[in-house]
Specification:
2 strands; two-stranded antiparallel ribbon
C-alpha cells in the first residue's frame, strides 16, 4: 500500500476535488458567518502538494524561502505585524505551491475535472438570481454593480467563468462541435456579468499576444490589434449603441482612461503607490514594508481599505526589490513550463493570468488552486476529451 503522503501524486484530480469542496464550503459558510474555512485548511493542502514536488523542488524552495525570509526580517523593523500580513504571505506561498503542483501533474487533469469546476461555479453564482448576493457592494467611484451570488467576492467568479470560457472555446476549435462554443459564450457572458472587467480584458490581451507569437497567425494578430485600436479611437461614437448593455462598462473604462480628465480607479490606486514609493529608504527598497501598510496608505489617501491592485507593485511595496525579483523568477518558470508547446490556448491562458496579475491580482482571492485543471488543459497541446 502506498504511503498516505503520496495520495495527491497518485490521485491529483481527487486531491484537487477535496480542495474544491473546502473552497466551496468556505464561500457557503462565509455568506453568513465570517469563518476562515479555506484559510485554515490551506496549510494542510499546501504541505500535501509540496511533498509531491520533485522536478521543481529547488525552484519552489528558493521562491518560498525568499518570501518567508523577507517576511521574518520585518519583525524587528516593524512596530507590529497585522493578521493581513500573515494571510498575504500564506496566500502568496499557497499560490506558488499550486502552480508548481500544476506544472508537475498537469497531464493528469481532464475535461471531466473542468466540468466539475463549471458546475461548482454555476451552483455558487446562480443563487444571485434568487436574491443571494455577497456584501461586496458596488464600485462607488464608477457606479459599477458587482454580482457574486454565494461567492465571497465577484472577482473569484469572474476568474473561474473567464478561464472556463477559454477552455470551452479551445474544445470548439479542436472538435468543431457547437455546444462548446455555446458554453464558451455563456461563461464569458457570466464573467462580464459579475461586474469585473479585468478578466475579459486580460484574456483579450493574452489572445492578442498568442496570435502575435504564432507566426502562422501573426497577420490575424495585427488585424485584431487594429480592431482594438479602432475601438479605442471611436469609443465615444460607438458607446451609445451599447448603452445599458453589459459592454457599456468597458466603453466607460475607455472613456475614463483615454478621454476623461477624471482618473480611473487604477490610476488613483497606483498614484498612491507612486507617492508611497517616494518615501522609501534603502531598507524599505531591500525588504519592503508590509501588506497592512499598503491598506493603511489607501485608507488615508482614498478612504478605501484596499491593496494596490497590481501584484508587481504590491510585492515590491510589501517585500521589496528582492521579493519583486523572486516573483518575476516565479513568472519566468510558469511561462517557460506552460508555453513550451507554443500552443495558442496555452499562451493565451498563461498571459491572461499575467495580465490579471498586472491589472488586479494573481493570488489574493485564491482562484489559482481552483483553476489548476483549466490552466492544465489550456497548456496541453493535445487536450483530453474526457472519454
Amino acid at each position: 500500500m502506498a504511503k498516505w503522503c503520496n495520495w495527491p501524486k497518485q490521485y491529483p484530480e481527487r486531491f484537487w476535488g477535496i480542495g474544491l469542496f473546502i473552497f466551496g464550503a468556505d464561500h457557503l459558510v462565509n455568506y453568513w458567518i465570517d469563518w476562515p474555512v479555506f484559510m485554515a485548511s490551506a496549510p494542510f493542502l499546501m504541505i500535501a502538494m509540496a511533498l509531491q514536488l520533485k522536478d521543481y523542488l529547488k525552484s519552489w524552495l528558493l521562491i518560498c524561502s525568499v518570501f518567508i525570509a523577507l517576511f521574518l526580517l520585518k519583525f524587528p523593523l516593524q512596530r507590529s505585524i497585522a493578521l493581513i500580513d500573515w494571510t498575504d504571505l500564506l496566500q502568496l506561498i499557497f499560490s506558488v505551491t499550486s502552480v508548481f503542483f500544476l506544472i508537475e501533474y498537469r497531464k493528469t487533469f481532464t475535461y471531466r475535472t473542468a466540468s466539475v469546476l463549471a458546475i461548482f461555479s454555476l451552483l455558487l453564482f446562480l443563487p444571485y438570481f434568487l436574491g443571494f448576493n455577497s456584501n461586496f457592494g458596488m464600485d462607488q467611484i464608477h457606479l459599477r454593480i458587482y454580482r457574486s451570488g454565494l461567492f465571497r467576492v465577484p472577482h473569484v467568479a469572474a476568474y473561474l467563468f473567464g478561464f472556463l470560457s477559454l477552455a470551452a472555446f479551445k474544445q470548439f476549435f479542436r472538435f468543431k462541435r457547437a455546444p462548446w462554443v455555446f458554453t464558451g459564450v455563456i461563461f464569458i457572458t457570466l464573467s462580464i456579468y459579475t461586474g469585473v472587467r479585468t478578466v475579459t480584458l486580460a484574456l483579450i490581451l493574452g489572445g492578442l499576444l498568442a496570435l502575435l507569437f504564432k507566426r502562422n497567425y501573426r497577420a490575424l494578430g495585427i488585424s485584431f490589434a487594429w480592431v482594438l485600436f479602432a475601438l479605442l479611437a471611436f469609443a465615444p461614437v460607438i458607446q451609445p449603441f451599447f448603452e445599458g448593455t453589459l459592454f457599456d462598462s468597458f466603453f466607460n473604462l475607455i472613456n475614463q482612461v483615454v478621454y476623461s480628465n477624471q482618473p480611473s480607479s487604477r490610476e488613483l490606486i497606483w498614484s498612491v503607490w507612486w507617492e508611497q514609493m517616494q518615501d522609501f529608504n534603502g531598507l524599505d527598497w531591500l525588504l519592503g514594508r508590509t501588506t497592512s501598510a499598503s491598506h493603511q496608505a489607501n485608507i488615508i489617501a482614498l478612504n478605501y481599505d484596499i491593496w494596490f491592485h497590481n501584484d508587481f507593485l504590491q510585492i515590491i511595496y510589501a517585500y521589496g526589490v528582492l521579493g519583486c525579483f523572486t516573483y518575476l523568477f516565479f513568472w519566468g518558470v510558469l511561462i517557460k513550463q506552460l508555453t513550451q508547446q507554443l500552443d495558442f490556448w496555452g499562451i493565451a491562458g498563461v498571459f491572461g493570468l499575467f495580465f490579471c496579475a498586472f491589472f488586479n491580482g494573481f493570488y489574493t482571492y485564491y482562484p489559482l488552486f481552483t483553476l489548476v485543471p483549466v490552466i492544465a488543459l489550456l497548456s496541453d497541446s493535445q487536450p483530453y476529451s474526457g472519454q
